[in-house]
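Q: Could you fold this chain for me?
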Amino acid sequence: MAVNEVLSALADETRRKILKKLREGKINSGDLAVFLNLSPQALSYHLSKLKKAGLIYETKNKNFIFYELNLTVLDEAILWINTLKGDKTDE
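A: Sure. Below is the predicted structure, expressed as structure tokens.
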């Protein structure tokens, strides 16, 4: 996954709130919309950005779509951020 997409997804406060809520476990879109006080359309937009970045994934169970965290994609972004800090042995 591209670091740009991950950082872009994390830049938005609403998407960070979604990720924090998903830390508690999987949740369906209806409950997530109520928790965040978002319209279904607004929630769909944010979930789309998070899915594109690979930060979440969805599973379907009957008529419900559940969302869960996929934090493994953060490893690449963390590695990139760590390169910004530099290594003193590189000097």
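A (continued): The domain at 3-86 is CATH 1.10.10.10 (Arc Repressor Mutant, subunit A).
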